[in-house]
Design goal:
Blueprint: H1 4-30, H2 36-63, H3 83-111, H4 114-137
Helix pairs in contact: 1-2, 1-3, 2-4, 3-4
The protein binds fe (ii) ion (2 copies).
Residues 17, 20, 49-50, 53, 97, 123, 127 line the site of one fe (ii) ion.
Length: 139
């Protein structure tokens, strides 16, 4: 059985993860000033987490007999050295990811695949935690 909509939404999530890897790696390298001390490792950590998420989602697409996307989501990655702008763009990215995974969660209910639901739910919750964490960082 082919879950076309679910595969498309998972691929949408994969595109955002591929973009997040690039964005966070870029910000980890470019963040300037005293905040670099804490934010560079944090952005590196987010890049690594996105790599892990991408790997899980990619395998889920294959399991559903789809073809995983290889291109990142085209939403521009804005260069800046200002940490506050980086946090703003990070929040934008995490909010977008959480919304896409929220959609995946709804579509997964119909697919009745417990393993997949559990794996995606963990990612979904991680994105929600990132949104909350970034909100607190920006207060
Ligand atoms: Fe993610
Ligand atoms: Fe994330």
């Amino acid at each position: 059985m082919k879950h076309t909509t679910l595969i498309d939404t998972l691929n949408e999530a994969l595109g955002w993860e591929l973009r997040a890897i690039n964005m966070y790696a870029h910000y980890a390298a470019n963040v300037k000033g005293i905040h670099r001390l804490q934010l560079s490792p944090m952005f590196d950590g987010e890049a690594t987490e996105s790599l892990v998420h991408a790997s899980i989602v990619r395998k889920a697409v294959v399991k559903l007999q789809g073809i995983p996307v290889t291109e990142r989501n085209p939403h521009p990655i804005t260069h800046t050295t200002d940490y506050a702008e980086m946090l703003q763009y990070s929040l934008e990215t995490e909010t977008k990811a959480a919304a896409v995974y929220g959609e995946v969660m709804i579509q997964l209910e119909a697919a009745a695949d417990q393993d997949l639901s559990d794996a995606i739910e963990q990612i979904y919750l991680a994105e929600l935690r990132s949104v909350e964490e970034l909100r607190l960082l920006m207060e």
